[in-house]
């Protein structure tokens, strides 16, 4: 690492701040009494408002965006909106620990999509991790049988769908990010997702803005803490850390969310749930190890890898 790339604060502290920040997402959703689609809409709308003052610096890039890329960004925004809709909905039915653990299947769905549509090869270690993670997810569902019954299974299923939709969003983003900056891509995807959720809420005759100051405080906390101090911080850390190191942060969210749920919501985790989540997270860890780019990659590949990803991953 060059001297000019060094940062005065230890990077592991910043990584820890990011993990804690995204872990709060499920807690804030549980605290809110608003419909999940309204929570998601206002979280994204407030995030775009916070980003708006910096948009003028990207005027030249915006006017040069092709129509095809606008269309792909719109689809990516729809997928992000669906992710929030399904994942936040899962928290109404299953535990925070189970919902966030199942959400870590997202990178596996990304690899499956890359294998099916981009013909990207799957390494044996990644395949072993994928199978292990799927077994862990199935075990989580079985562990819910004696706890929440059908409603808990519904929550697990919604979280799984949320992981799938955000995977589609990320696959689209990986293509678009070769032509667009992280800020421009993220701003318009957030905006499109908020607009689509707004139409969904209007069609369902949900109140869009008539909420208490407490609810608006929760919406703002969601926009600032898990989004800006969470996912955007991880994007920034990609300038200083290898991408696979940052991607490992996905394993920290279920642990952080479970601990916060225990302290702030009084939500306990059974030994069976903990064992199932451990199997799932171990599988995702193996998968991430097996998906790492070799260190002998060319300089051009290294530069591509160091480009920041979009700031809109799960939670």
Automatic annotation (TrEMBL):
Pfam families: EamA. The chain crosses the membrane at residues 7-28, 34-55, 67-88, 100-118, 125-142, 154-172, 184-204, 216-234, 246-265, 271-290. It is a multi-pass membrane protein. It is found in: Endomembrane system. Residues 13-140, 154-288 form the EamA domain. Keywords: Membrane, Transmembrane, Transmembrane helix. Belongs to the EamA transporter family. This is DMT family transporter. It comes from Paenibacillus gyeongsangnamensis.
């Amino acid at each position: 690492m060059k001297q000019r790339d060094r940062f005065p604060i230890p990077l592991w502290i910043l990584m820890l701040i990011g993990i804690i920040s995204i872990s709060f997402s499920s807690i804030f959703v549980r605290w809110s009494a608003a419909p999940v689609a309204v929570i998601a809409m206002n979280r994204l709308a407030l995030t775009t408002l916070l980003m708006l003052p910096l948009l003028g610096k990207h005027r030249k890039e915006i006017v040069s965006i092709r129509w095809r890329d606008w269309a792909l960004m719109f689809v990516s925004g729809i997928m992000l909106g669906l992710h929030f809709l399904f994942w936040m909905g899962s928290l109404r039915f299953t535990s925070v620990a189970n919902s966030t653990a199942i959400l870590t299947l997202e990178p596996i769905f990304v690899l499956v999509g890359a294998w099916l549509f981009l013909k990207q090869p799957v390494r044996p270690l990644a395949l072993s991790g994928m199978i292990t993670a799927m077994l862990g997810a199935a075990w989580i569902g079985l562990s819910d049988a004696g706890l929440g019954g059908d409603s808990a299974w519904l929550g697990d299923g919604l979280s799984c769908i949320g992981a799938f939709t955000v995977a589609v969003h990320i696959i689209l983003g990986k293509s678009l990010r070769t032509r667009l900056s992280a800020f421009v891509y993220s701003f318009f995807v957030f905006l499109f997702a908020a607009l689509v959720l707004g139409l969904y809420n209007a069609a369902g005759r949900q109140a869009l803005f008539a909420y208490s100051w407490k609810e608006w405080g929760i919406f703002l906390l969601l926009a600032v803490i898990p989004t800006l101090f969470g996912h955007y911080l991880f994007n920034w850390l990609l300038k200083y850390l290898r991408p696979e190191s940052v991607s490992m942060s996905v394993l920290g969210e279920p642990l952080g969310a479970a601990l916060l749920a225990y302290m702030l919501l009084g939500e306990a985790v059974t030994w069976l749930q903990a064992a199932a989540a451990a199997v799932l997270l171990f599988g995702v860890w193996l998968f991430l190890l097996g998906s790492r780019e070799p260190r002998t990659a060319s300089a051009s590949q290294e530069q591509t890898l160091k480009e920041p990803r979009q700031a809109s991953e799960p939670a």
